[in-house]
Design brief:
307 residues; mainly alpha; 75% helix
């Protein structure tokens, strides 16, 4: 297992190199620049600014300089947020996104998993149809519809929770963003768990357990639940990375200081280093969680052999 993990980590280096390379050259190929604005900058001042950020150098030299800094963990300075590095912006925004995203993930797994298993056990009943209808509705409704409705009901009408803003350690400020971000994932998890549970319950080893006279609840929890998680692992790899990096819609509606808003602002203003830094971060998270997903296969299914 250790050799497999090390081999995957080494193999991730070329992938990150490709991600960084594509992000670098695509951004520099886009029209405009980080210091283009409606107000014209005098040529001598613009030249000094470009020299300060090494933008006056040949593109190949800029690329090599960026890779050298990236190898040391330095994502470079932000062109829009002056006197601020990309590392500082990520360090400020990532904890917010991680808190909201992991809370949403926990809600999705607990609620969606329970709904999916109950629907599978009561397959083709009225309860199954109602739960799956709600799941389809949860997938169909976009977050920019769900989030304002949650604010309208729980913040404005009932005055139970704040409508937005972010206070570190405040549970009340966490609830609405996490629920809004979790609802679509709850629907996805519910549908996947239902399909997986139905397939596992039709397996021969489940029929053998039932033939031995084990109670249905014991068959479900001891024998069926663990194999049903296998399809979920593939889904959770990229899903966790997406939840942690946050949703720009949720961040905008609730006024969260996450990295998603910085990413959009940086893309509009050609803040090369910030866009590339967040892109590389997202790639690292995808690779890391996909690796964890592959390792979890061996724990869930002993038939899996990582060679």
């Amino acid at each position: 297992m250790l050799r497999y993990t090390l081999r995957r980590l080494v193999g991730a280096i070329p992938t990150l190199l490709v991600i960084a390379t594509l992000a670098f050259f695509l951004l520099h190929a886009a029209p405009g620049g980080p210091f283009d604005s409606a107000k014209r900058i005098p040529p001598d001042i613009l030249q000094n600014i470009q020299a300060r950020y090494h933008l006056d150098e040949p593109l190949g030299l800029q690329y090599l300089r960026y890779l050298g800094n990236l190898a040391r963990g330095d994502l470079g300075p932000s062109y829009v947020y002056r006197s601020t590095s990309v590392n500082q912006i990520v360090a400020q925004g990532l904890p917010v996104d991680a808190t909201v995203g992991l809370t949403a993930l926990a809600l999705a797994l607990l609620i969606g998993g329970a709904i999916g298993v109950n629907a599978a056990v009561r397959r083709s009943t009225g309860w199954d149809y109602v739960l799956m209808t709600l799941a389809v509705l949860g997938i169909s409704l976009p977050v920019f519809v769900i989030a304002p409705l949650l604010i309208l009901v729980f913040a404005i009408d009932l005055h139970w929770l704040p409508a937005g803003d972010w206070v570190v350690g405040s549970l009340s400020h966490l609830v609405l963003p996490a629920v809004a971000l979790a609802l679509p994932y709850i629907a996805y998890v519910a549908r996947m768990m239902r399909a997986s549970t139905i397939e596992v319950l039709a397996s021969p080893f489940i029929r053998t357990a039932q033939a031995k006279g084990l109670p249905p609840r014991l068959v479900l929890w001891r024998h069926a639940l663990r194999p049903t998680l296998t399809p979920m692992i593939s889904f959770l790899g990229p899903a966790i990375a997406g939840l942690i990096t946050g949703s720009i819609v949720v961040e905008t509606i609730f006024g969260l200081p996450g990295i998603g808003r910085y990413f959009v602002t940086a893309a509009l203003n050609r803040d090369y280093t910030l866009v590339m830094g967040i892109t590389v971060l997202y790639g690292v998270l995808i690779i890391a969680f996909n690796l964890l997903a592959d390792l979890c296969y061996a724990w869930i299914d002993p038939r899996v052999r990582l060679r």
